[in-house]
């Protein structure tokens, strides 16, 4: 049996164990196929942490500890917090009285007992199973969870707390996030996880961030995803488009996509505080930002001369800058596409990049013609590809349904129900 088959067999055992430790027979998220005897289990393995050598885990109620060592399985039941500690190539579990429950283990799985009992780790509550694996001197902490429950921890950080009149936007976000997750389940080859819990994939906050309205929106769109040419849509989304989204190949160095095209949504996102924005720089501040970017990009300390001019060479179909030219006394620097946001950054918060690449350049000059100050007057927040989240909320307020919102931002797509 190869590694993949062994893993699936182990995962099946874990879910069966979960079914046993739950107080009722029904396992949420499982559904029988209409034809045949197979069961589809859409689950996600989410990497929560990999930089700590130990972790404390507890639950709202009691929980089971599955210990695996040399292919052998032992199960312990506890109601008090336990500590999982790295042992180099192994892990061990210690109880609340500092006694070792088991050590030199290959893997530890924590399973909550009883309905709606949630695990508590990293100061947050989580549904599903927690897996601990040794990783050098640290632990890999992975939350194994059904897709719909995963979304309950993803959608709230994306849209925040919304009103009843905005539920169609929440449904649209749920479908987009589900589609993104389904399309990326095999992205980390040879890793024991499918997604990371940060902006690298989708921000995931577990059960601690759940909201009733969001849960309802997820339930009402359960299993629905977006397809294009019989493949999952790569459902990118961003905060505020400023009135128009953009072609993916014009924003990043990516292939053209039939469904990630520039579309206008008028003033649907005009309520966003980033619909219009400004950032002001002195010449010295802007020069310092450009030097910082170039030094990081080229791997060596780099200084440039005073800035003489800044020109927008051309724009994308959605109005974002495709090429920006910065002229100094002796050189011309050309910056392209969405990376322009990293080059310029912000004076209002030096740790953040420019809200968007859709802006005009307003220059104040010295008497000898050099640049004295620059104002970037822009529109929108984010890369501008795919669904505009604030636009989706605006459209839902106008009575748009989630399917029409999705088809507005993702052109020529099909909505399908997987399970």
What does it look like?
The protein has 419 residues and is α+β, with helices and mostly antiparallel strands. Among the domains are: 3-152, no CATH class; 277-378, no CATH class. The protein contains 10 helices and 26 strands. The strands form 7 sheets. It has a 7-stranded mixed sheet. A 6-stranded antiparallel sheet has the order 9-8-7-4-11-12, with no helix packed on it. Strand 21 and strand 22 form a beta hairpin. It is globular and about 80 Å long. The model is unreliable at 1-9 and 19-39 (pLDDT under 50).
Share of helical residues: 10-25%
Taken as a percent bin, the fraction of beta residues is: 25-35%
Query: What's the β-strand tally?
Result: 26
Mean pLDDT: 91
Task: Tell me the layout of helices and strands.
Blueprint: H1 3-21, E1 31-32, E2 39-40, E3 43-52, E4 54-59, E5 63-69, E6 72-78, E7 82-87, E8 90-94, E9 100-105, E10 107-112, E11 119-121, E12 124-126, E13 129-135, E14 138-146, H2 147-152, H3 155-159, H4 167-183, E15 195-196, H5 212-220, E16 224-228, E17 231-232, E18 237-238, H6 248-251, E19 277-282, H7 283-298, E20 307-315, E21 321-328, E22 332-336, H8 340-344, E23 359-365, E24 371-378, E25 387-388, H9 389-397, H10 402-409, E26 414-417
Parallel strand pairs: 3-15, 18-25
Antiparallel strand pairs: 1-2, 3-14, 4-7, 4-11, 5-6, 5-10, 7-8, 8-9, 10-13, 11-12, 13-14, 16-17, 16-26, 19-24, 20-21, 21-22, 23-24
Helix pairs in contact: 4-5, 4-9, 4-10
């Amino acid at each position: 049996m190869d590694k993949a088959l062994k893993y699936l067999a182990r995962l099946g055992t874990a879910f069966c164990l979960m079914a046993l430790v739950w107080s009722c027979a029904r396992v949420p998220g499982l559904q029988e196929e209409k034809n045949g005897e197979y069961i589809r289990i859409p689950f996600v393995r989410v990497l929560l942490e990999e930089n700590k050598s130990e972790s404390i885990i507890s639950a709202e109620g009691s929980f089971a500890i599955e210990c695996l060592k040399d292919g052998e399985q032992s199960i312990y039941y506890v109601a008090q917090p336990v500590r999982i500690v790295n042992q180099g190539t192994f892990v061990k579990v210690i109880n609340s009285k500092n006694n070792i429950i088991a050590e030199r283990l290959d893997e530890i799985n924590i399973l909550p007992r009883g309905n709606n009992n949630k695990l508590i780790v990293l100061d947050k509550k989580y549904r599903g199973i927690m897996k601990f694996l040794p990783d050098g001197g640290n632990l890999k902490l992975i939350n194994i969870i059904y897709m719909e429950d995963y979304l309950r921890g993803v959608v709230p950080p994306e849209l925040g707390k919304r009103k009843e009149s905005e539920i169609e936007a929440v449904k649209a976000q749920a479908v987009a996030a589900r589609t993104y997750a389904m399309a990326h389940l095999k992205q980390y080859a040879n890793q024991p996880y499918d997604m990371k819990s940060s902006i690298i994939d989708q921000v995931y906050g577990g059960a601690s961030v759940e909201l009733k309205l969001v849960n309802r929106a997820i339930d009402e769109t359960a299993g629905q995803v977006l397809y294009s040419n019989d493949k999952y849509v790569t459902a990118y989304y961003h905060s505020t488009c400023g009135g128009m989204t953009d072609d993916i190949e014009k924003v990043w160095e990516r292939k053209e996509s039939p469904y990630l095209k520039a579309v206008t949504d008028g003033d649907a996102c005009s309520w966003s505080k980033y619909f219009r924005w400004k950032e002001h720089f002195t010449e010295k501040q802007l020069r310092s930002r450009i030097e910082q970017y170039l030094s990081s990009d080229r791997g060596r300390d780099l200084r440039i001369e005073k800035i003489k001019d800044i020109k927008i060479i051309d724009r994308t179909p959605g109005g974002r800058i495709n090429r920006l030219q910065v002229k100094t006394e002796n050189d011309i620097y050309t910056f392209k596409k969405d990376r322009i946001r990293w080059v310029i950054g912000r004076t209002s918060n030096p740790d953040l990049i420019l809200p968007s690449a859709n802006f005009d350049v307003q220059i104040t000059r010295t008497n000898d013609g050099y640049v004295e100050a620059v104002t970037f007057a822009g529109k929108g927040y984010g890369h501008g590809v795919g669904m505009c989240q604030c636009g989706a909320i605006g459209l839902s307020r106008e009575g748009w349904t989630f399917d029409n919102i999705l088809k507005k931002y993702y052109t020529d797509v099909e909505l399908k129900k997987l399970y």
